[in-house]
Every structure is written in C-alpha cells, then in structure tokens.
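It is worth pausing here to work through a concrete case rather than discussing structure prediction in the abstract. The textbook approach is simple: state the sequence, then state the predicted structure, then interpret. We follow exactly that order.
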Amino acid sequence: MPSYYELYRTSTLGAALTDSLDDLITAGHITPQLAIQVLEQYDKSISEALSTKVKAKAVMKGNLRTYRFCDDVWTFIIKNPTFKFDHETATADKVKVVACNLKRPGE
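Step two, the predicted structure:
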C-alpha cells in the first residue's frame, strides 16, 4: 500500500480532525489505532482530491527569501507574494510553499 505525505495534517481541516480524534480517544470512543487509520485515510483522500478535483491555476510572484531541498521535499519561503487567479489577485506578507514528488521516495 503506498504511503502519502502528511503535509495536510497541519492545515485547518487536518488540525480539526486531529483534535476531534484526540477527544474521541480520551473519551474512550475509539482506539489510537483507529485514529491512525483515519489519519492515513485523510492523507490519501486529501492528496487524491487535490490532484484530481482542483483545476484552478494561479501565478505567484514575490521575493524568494529561503529555499531548501531535504528528503525529496522542496520548501520555499516567499516574502511579499502576489497571487493572480483568473479574476482576482491576493497578496500576503509571507508564504511557505512545500513541494513534493507525486510518489514518495522508494515507491
């Protein structure tokens, strides 16, 4: 069975899921093993949904502050980014971009 990156567990949705699972474990409603299975399914589902369902594209421009490549994962810190979508533009002070290969190393 292929393993999936755990990147989206730190998103708002992933953090809420993790908190809910912790509450269920504490209350004795589920086992920690079941919580791990739920998180692994979440990793798989979110990864597949983003790769097949999201069709939006954006152009990003900004000042590259930091970049690193470790364990087949690129991390970029962009200062003052501007995102241009089809009909709107968004800006921020700083953004972190994490880019991974579609397949994990060794698969």
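Step three, interpretation. DSSP finds two helices and four strands in the chain. The CA atoms of residues 4 and 104 lie 7 Å apart.
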